Amino acid sequence: MLLQEYRDGILLFNITDEKVWGKAIKDSVGLEAFYQANKNKYMWDERVDVTIYKCTNDKVAKKVQKLIKAKAKKGYTDEDITKKINVKSQLDLTIEKGIFTKEQNELVAMAKWEKGVTSKVTTENEVVLVEVNEVLPPQPKALDEIRGLVTSDYQNQLEKEWLEALKKKYPVKIHEDVLSRIK
Asked: Per residue in 166-178, pLDDT tens?
């Protein structure tokens, strides 16, 4: 009986791998179709595209603010600003760009979320200027960003469809007389 149970377990594992797990990984067209049908389940919250200027002190922050205001008029890049500020020390200014939600970055969460606005945020160790380049509305995440989660959900759907097909093909019959003897 133990050998039979072991054999049945291996068979179940192999058929599940073929019908569900392996199929979800190999079937890129099916995965893409599943994602397109369900992409509203995988949404980003509101996000902002920002440039974060981390300054060592308030004096450096004031210089950076002036350069940020002149950036559009004079065509300054972030590299130009860094070169102008980091003359004495390479640590006076560091610049970070990215797209963040409020939960992903506390400095960004403290800033005013309005396009073109630069907010000043003071922390214990530094003065931070957060320049909002663009406010991004909630939108679906790209498949490449959440492939693992979509694959898992697709596997669950494939398993559900497979079990429903099995139930249709092999309906369950309960023999009441035998069941009553077991109790």
From this structure: 999 999 888 888 8
